[in-house]
Design goal:
GO cellular component, one term: membrane
Distance between the termini: 52 Å
Number of strands: 7
Protein name: Short-subunit dehydrogenase
Domain Ketoreductase: 12-197
CATH superfamily: NAD(P)-binding Rossmann-like Domain
Largest sheet: 7 strands, parallel
Family: Belongs to the short-chain dehydrogenases/reductases (SDR) family.
Helix content: 40-55%
Oligomer: single chain
Shape: globular
Number of helices: 10
CATH architecture: 3-Layer(aba) Sandwich
Low-confidence stretches: 1-5, 207-212, 216-221, 277-289
Order of helices and strands: EHEHEHEHHEHEHHEHH
CATH class: Alpha Beta
InterPro entries: KR_dom, NAD(P)-bd_dom_sf, Sc_DH/Rdtase_CS, SDR_fam
């Protein structure tokens, strides 16, 4: 695929989960602007419809939506079959849907842990398994799974999120090798966004034992996140076009990747005191009560 024209995805069918807002919405808009037909899904029916209405469709393209809980394996399989039936093929799948949870292990409930793992890891596995046969059959498939900068390093109060995103990374990297070994015509990309200005933290569950509730953490996150969803989506599509195995989004993601590779496991000795110092400073400034 060349990115030199505005219709380089003409006659291509793209599937995007988590399309109601954030990176998913921006992916949908940019894919549509470049001529792709779209199947968009989310649990948020109202904002999903808004995304579909915003998509600039070419005369040959169409946009369909589906309310989907990506953690529901049977529903995901049914959805994949319906997309294949409706569009006749699937060329690109973006397993993008995700949620957030801030909680130390000692305080974290099993309910919250299972909720996050079902969406952030299970959703990627479900989407991959459901659509992979259709991507192979397309003869030119692209699978893009969203991990995180927290799939590169472990962060205090993010154990569940880390577990899911490290899981996405390992699952995706293994799958990429399987596709190459089997010579299946599917390129596989793992995406690691840093701080992106989306609603994921605003809708997070949990509380850290260091005193920050979800609303406070969301405020802190939104103050330091520098990458827009539009920029993130553009970076993802450029990486996919170049068939990159890994896409880092934002200077913070590149920084964490560098530290993890250069410092190795010793990064944990740096991270813990820095995190606690950050919370102490936030308390001093009245951000955390």
């Amino acid at each position: 695929m060349s990115s030199s024209t505005t219709d380089n995805y003409a006659n291509q069918v793209a599937v995007v989960t988590g399309a109601a807002s954030g990176i998913g919405r921006s992916l949908a808009l940019q894919l549509a602007a470049r001529g792709a037909s779209l199947s968009l899904s989310d649990v948020d029916e109202v904002h999903l419809a808004e995304t579909a209405a915003m998509c600039p469709t070419a005369h040959w393209a169409k946009v369909e939506t589906a309310v989907l809980d990506v953690a529901d394996r049977a529903a995901f399989q049914d959805y994949a079959e319906s997309v294949q039936s409706s569009f006749g093929c699937v060329n690109m799948v973006f397993n993008n849907a995700g949620v957030a949870l801030g909680a130390d292990v000692v305080d974290m409930s099993w309910e919250d842990f299972d909720w996050l793992m079902g969406i952030n890891f299970g959703g990627v596995v479900n989407g991959t398994k459901a659509f992979l046969p259709y991507l192979i059959a397309s003869g030119d498939g692209h699978l893009v799974n969203t991990s995180s900068v927290f799939g590169l390093v472990g962060i205090p109060s993010q154990s569940a999120y880390n577990a899911a995103k490290f899981g996405v990374r390992g699952f995706t990297e293994a799958l990429r090798q399987e596709m190459k070994i089997s010579r299946h015509p599917v390129t596989v990309t793992c995406v690691h966004p840093g701080g992106v200005k989306t609603n994921i933290v605003n809708n997070a569950r949990g509380v850290s034992d260091m005193g920050a509730d979800t609303a406070t953490i969301a405020t802190m996150f939104n103050n330091i996140a520098r990458t827009t969803p539009e920029k993130a989506a553009s970076t993802i599509l450029k990486g996919m076009d170049k068939k990159k195995p890994r896409v880092l989004i934002g200077a913070d993601a590149r920084g964490f990747d560098f530290v993890a590779r250069v410092v190795g496991p010793r990064y944990q000795d740096i991270s813990a005191p820095v995190s606690r110092a950050g919370y102490a400073l936030a308390r001093k400034r009245g951000i955390i009560k």
